[in-house]
Amino acid sequence: MISPSFTLDRSYSKSQLPRLPTFVSLPSSPLPQLFIPQRSSPSKTNLQAMKHRLHSIPMLLGGTQASFYMSDVIDNAKPTIVLINSLFTSAKIFEAQFEDQSWTKAANLICIEPLGHGKTRCNSSRWTTYDIAQMNIVVVKSLGVEKAFALGTSGGGAIAVAMAILDPILIEGVIPMNASMDSESPRSRELKCWNADEILTPYIDEFSKPQSTDFQVPLKFCQTRIKVGFGSDFKPEVQEALIKDMQEDYAGDEGRKRLVSAAICMRDRSSLHDRLYAVRCPVLWLHGAGPSTFSVDNARAEIQLFSRSEKATLQVIAGSQHLLAGPHAPLADKLIIDFVQTWHK
C-alpha cells in the first residue's frame, strides 16, 4: 500500500547528502481500502506482443548491435516509454507490460536490452552506464521518436537517469524502480544496500578463469541473483523461467565473457550523484518496501539530489519487493501510466 500523506525527508546530514527541498516522498504506511487495479487480459501472445529488432551502431565500442523490442509501429500521437531491464535479465521481464492493453494503448513501448544482456552485442569487453545510455538514445532516435520517458528497474534505473543527463531534450521524464544512483560505495552499504563486491567478485574471479566451451551459468549464481533482486515476489514458475533465460543468454564461452563484463560493469559503475542536478525533467521513483538490492533509505536520500527536476517524487509501496510482479504490480502500472499521461508534452 502507499500513503496519501506527503513528507520531506530530513534524516540525513550534510556530510552524507545535501538537503534539497524539491521532492515529494510518500512513506510506506498502509492506506486502508486502497483500490488496486487489475491488469487487463493479454490480447496477444508473447511473440506477437514483442516485436524484435536489431540496430547497428558502428562507432560505439568498436561496433555494437543493439537488441530491442517494440509493442508496435511508433505512433507519434502517443507518448513513448523506453524500458530498461535489470542486471542479468532480458527484455522478457517486461512481457506483462507488452501484453497489457492499458500499457500499449497508452504509449509506444520500446525495451532496449543493455550491453551484455539479452541479444545485444558489442566488440568491447568494457562499457559504462553512460555507454548503455548513449546506445539507447541512438536506438530511440533511429525510430523517429522525438520525446520519450525512460523507465529502468534496479541497475536499469541508473541507465534511465543517465539518458536524461545525456539528452535532456529527448527524455521528458524518468521512472527509476528499486534503483540507486550511487556507485557501490561504503555510503550505499551503510544505507543497507547490497554489497556488490562481496556478492559479485567471487563469481567474477571464478568465471574469468578458463572454462569449458559448453559453459553454463551455475544454478547457485542464478538463485542468488533472483533472491537479491526479486525476492519472493515472483512465483516459482516465473523464477524457473528467469533461471532458464539467464542460462541461455550466457551459455558457452562467449556467454561467459559477457557475463563477466556485465558483472564488472555493475560492480565498478560510477556514481551519478554529481550529475543529478542536470536532470530537469520530472522524476517518478517507485520503490518496493521489501528487502531489495537497494534500500528505501537510499532512495529517500537520493531523491533529494534531483534539485532542478520539474518535480521529483518518491513513492514507496509497502508489501512488495519487485514492482513488476506480485500483487502490487497493477498499482505500479497505474502510477506509471498516470505519470506519463500527466507529463507528456
Structure characteristics:
345 residues; alpha/beta; 10-stranded mixed sheet; 10 strands; 35% helix; 16% strand; globular; disordered N terminus
Provide a descriptive summary of the structure in words.
The protein is α/β, with parallel strands linked by helices and 345 residues long. 35% of the residues lie in helices and 16% in strands. The protein is built from twelve helices and ten strands. It has helices at 46-49, 95-99, 101-104, 129-142, 155-166, 186-190, 196-208, 219-229, 236-249, 252-267, 296-302, 329-343, and strands at residues 23-26, 51-57, 64-70, 80-84, 108-112, 121-122, 148-153, 171-177, 283-288, 312-317. Strands 1, 2, 3, 4, 5, 6, 7, 8, 9 and 10 form a ten-stranded mixed beta sheet that branches. Strand 9 (283-288), helix 11 (296-302) and strand 10 (312-317) form a beta-alpha-beta unit. Helix 4 crosses helix 5 (155-166), helix 7 packs antiparallel against helix 10 (252-267) and helix 8 (219-229) packs across helix 9. The protein is globular and about 55 Å long.
